[in-house]
Design a protein that fits this description.
With 159 residues, this protein is mainly alpha-helical. The chain is built from seven helices and three strands.
């Protein structure tokens, strides 16, 4: 690989739209690989930009970092993934996207009613969730469609 084909962490961050800290974090998780210069500085191949674009798309679809790691691990080693490689990975998202679309439509259509959060502050909540029966469904908005109930990765988990 020529030196001009290698990008610094700052260049990768600027080109991908990710923060430098995110790039380093993804490298730590094994989602990205970097060579090191004699001085210990990271150098990334240009193909890292495609991996980061995949990570962003996968996260936007709702894949966890563990799922992203598994998907990236299925890519061939030793060569830049092809369009067919990426198409194969993204085919599995169709069902998830369809479920999320259905869930979002249900959320939109029922947004003014009780979502089972346990607040019981709306008159409608007393009808939809009498006595806070939704608490049996676990924490959070129990009546949200399943496709929209993901654990918050900022609160105790590697979402």
């Amino acid at each position: 690989m020529h030196t001009t084909d290698q990008l610094t962490v700052g260049e990768i961050a600027r080109r991908s739209g990710f923060a430098e800290s995110a790039v380093r974090y993804y490298e730590k998780l094994g989602l990205l690989t970097a060579a090191r210069t004699a001085g210990g500085q990271r150098r990334f191949e240009r193909s890292t930009l495609r991996r980061l674009a995949f990570i962003r798309a996968a996260r936007n679809v709702g894949l966890s970092l563990d799922e992203v790691a598994a998907a990236l691990a299925s890519l061939p080693a030793g060569r830049t993934p092809t369009r067919a490689d990426w198409a194969r990975l993204s085919r599995g998202w169709r069902k998830r996207l369809d479920e999320q679309i259905t869930a979002l439509i249900a959320l939109r259509d029922g947004l003014d009613s009780c979502i089972g959060c346990g607040c019981l502050s709306l008159q409608r909540c007393a009808i939809s969730n009498p006595g806070d029966t939704a608490r049996a469904g676990g924490p959070g908005a129990a009546y949200l469609p399943a496709g929209l109930r993901r654990p918050d990765s900022r609160i105790g988990g590697r979402g």
